[in-house]
Amino acid sequence: MSTHTTFVAVGDSFTEGMSDELPDGTCRGWADLVAARLAQDTPGFRYANLAVRGKLVGQIVDEQVGLAADMRPDLASFAGGMNDVMRPGCDIDRVLGRIDEAAARLTEGSGKLLMFRVIDPTRRMRSSARLLPRITKLIDGVDAAAERHGAVVVDLFSQRVFDSPALWAEDRIHLNAEGHRRVAEAVLCALGADPAFDWNATVPPAPPLPWTLRAKAELRWARTHVVPWIGRRLTGRSSGDNRPPKRPQLSPLQD
């Protein structure tokens, strides 16, 4: 694996690390785990994470990409698009144009760029099947931008391991700690690191719940997560409104 002395991550909740929470309530996530691994053998390693939950691709490009490029890291990552895809009025062609803009800007200012083929939600959440045409276009656009700008693509879409509910938080939208751990390992392998474990290993299924408990869980999920999400969409709000990035500057990792 090549030595990287600086790493800047941009994106939304996926890169912020939402639902991989530390005891103090802050988020960790795959990018923090990757940074920790890169820092092990690199004296003076520095890391910034500009990602903020709820951000659309246009917001990521306008608010984060320029700042990241100006830091001139030797490794940058860009992940985004699912928040756009989930919105009824999504202009997917405009989204893809902004992704290409981000890739161009980040490769101008960094040594290597990581991009992602998003995780496929359709086998895990049947209601998301209607989004598959947009998701497919999103993936094709990421592949095209990566080819044009020489980025490394981490393919999460084709990996069936992420179908397992055991890798997802209670909201069913964000990865939990184990999910983020597996994404971090996939990233490190894409960068050429020796595997520390088989991140794609099958997760044993949990014992089925009685239908009464399943029904209660569905109601709790709808009340706790779906209704507030719909409320934010109807009022034009986002979970990331007025939320600053957790690591706005390149800085050493703390022990």
TrEMBL record:
Keyword set includes Transmembrane helix: no
InterPro entries, per database record: GDSL_Rv0518-like, SGNH_hydro, SGNH_hydro_sf
EC number: 3.1.-.-
Disordered, as annotated region: 233-255
Superkingdom, taxonomy of origin: Bacteria
Stretches assigned to the SGNH hydrolase-type esterase domain: 9-182
Keywords attached to this entry: Hydrolase
Top-tier EC class: hydrolase
Example GO molecular function: hydrolase activity
Pfam families in the record: Lipase_GDSL_2
Keyword Ion transport attached: no
PANTHER family per UniProt: GDSL-LIKE LIPASE/ACYLHYDROLASE, PUTATIVE (AFU_ORTHOLOGUE AFUA_2G00820)-RELATED, GDSL-LIKE LIPASE_ACYLHYDROLASE, PUTATIVE (AFU_ORTHOLOGUE AFUA_2G00820)-RELATED
Name of the molecule in the record: SGNH/GDSL hydrolase family protein
Source organism per UniProt: Actinokineospora guangxiensis
